[in-house]
């Protein structure tokens, strides 16, 4: 299990690490202390992923409200 800062990771890297943390925990091979550390890391990664998704959702909302216009199909062509 790596201990990179979730703030510096891309969404994809954080998600991949989160999936690995979950797999490690589900394996049942971690000690109690390692399970707790993995859980903490998983929470950090989950917060990173949720934060990034929230940021992207906000950007899409801004685009939908201002820049994006409905696409009109010219049926004469």
Summarize the helices and strands and which ones pair or pack.
Layout: H1 11-27, H2 32-67
Helix pairs in contact: 1-2
Summarize the structure.
The protein is mostly helical. It is built from 2 helices and no strands.
Report on the architecture of this protein:
The chain contains 2 helices and no strands. With 77 residues, it is mainly alpha-helical. Helix 1 runs antiparallel to helix 2. The radius of gyration is 20 Å and the shape is elongated. The N and C termini lie far apart (58 Å).
Keywords for this entry:
single chain; about 80 residues; mainly alpha; 2 helices
Structural class: mainly alpha
With helices defined by DSSP (H or I, 4 residues minimum), what is the helix count? 2
Roughly what fraction of the amino acids lie in strands? under 5%
Order of helices and strands: HH
């Amino acid at each position: 299990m790596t201990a990179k800062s979730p703030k510096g990771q891309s969404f994809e890297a954080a998600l991949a690490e989160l999936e690995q943390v979950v797999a490690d925990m589900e394996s049942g091979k971690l000690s109690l202390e390692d399970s707790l550390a993995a859980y903490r890391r998983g929470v950090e990664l989950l917060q990173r992923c949720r934060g990034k998704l929230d940021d992207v959702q906000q950007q899409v909302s801004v685009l939908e409200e201002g820049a994006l216009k409905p696409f009109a199909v010219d049926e004469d062509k």
